[in-house]
Amino acid sequence: MTIDADHLPQGAEKVAAVQGMFDSIAPRYDLVNRLMTFRMDVGWRRRAVSVLGLAPASRIADLACGTGDLAYELDARGYRPIGFDLSHGMLAAAPRPFPRVQADALQLPLSDAGMDGATCGFALRNLVELGTFFNELARVVRPGGRIALLEVAEPPNPILRFGHGLYFGKVVPVVGGLLSDRAAYRYLPKSVAYLPEPDELMHQLRSAGFADATRHLLSVGICQLIVGTRDR
Fold first, then answer.
1. Looking at the domain assignment, is residue 2 inside a domain?
2. Number of Cβ within a 10 Å radius of residue 220
3. Alpha carbon 83 to its chain's center
4. Long-range contacts made by residues 208-213, C-beta under 8 angstroms, separation at least 24?
5. Strand, helix or coil at 107?
6. Please, are residues 196 and 226 in contact by the beta-carbon 8 Å criterion?
């Protein structure tokens, strides 16, 4: 299914649309990300991995792993990552091998409490149901395990928020259209509308089993990092 930039799909329609979109933009996904974020995304991923604070060789589920950016960083820090992504195109576009499986993040092929931690990079708005995802995180991460979730955000400063809105809503679609799929990069800024308000998002995550979860704004608020420990 082709993504419709003027329509925010729901349910099974969203799953098919998101899967098809990422299959189509996979070949140049990393290049466009680096250009659009001025390589800030590299630092955001490093920050996410650094806050896990788990022992070396810990098993980490990297959800919506894409082409492996977070998985490679996890491996470099001495962890044992395994990636899961709905898009076969993204998995196939990985620049070098890493353990990965095509799977829905809402129905992971993992045993209960089988992972020491989990990461997810910029995919919360692409999931059909966040509450189900948070429950699945709580199921597969052991008590005392850690999670680090990255997602886009809006700066709290109104002037910065206005400027970011112009860039994200106007410049990103043009750059994405020139280098990749125009409809996909018109849709991605609009997909932020799927995200609940921060307080509601954090309430859902804490209720799922990460009572100490906290939210941190990065780079003047254009990115958010959510971290938490699985309740014991």
1. no
2. 14
3. 12
4. 208/131, 208/134, 208/135, 208/137, 208/138, 209/134, 209/135, 209/137, 209/138, 210/134, 210/137, 210/138, 210/147
5. coil
6. no
How many structural domains does the chain have?
A: 1
pLDDT in tens, the chain (232 residues): 566 667 899 999 999 999 999 999 999 999 999 999 999 999 999 999 999 999 999 999 999 999 999 999 999 999 999 999 999 999 999 999 999 999 999 999 999 999 999 999 999 999 999 999 999 999 999 999 999 999 999 999 999 999 999 999 999 999 898 999 988 999 988 999 999 999 999 999 999 999 999 999 999 999 999 999 999 9
> Which has the closest alpha carbon to 129: 18, 22, 3?
18
Residue type, 85: D
Structural domain of 118:
11-229
Bridge partners (DSSP) listed for residue 61: 82, 118
Q: How far apart are the first and last CA of the chain?
A: 42
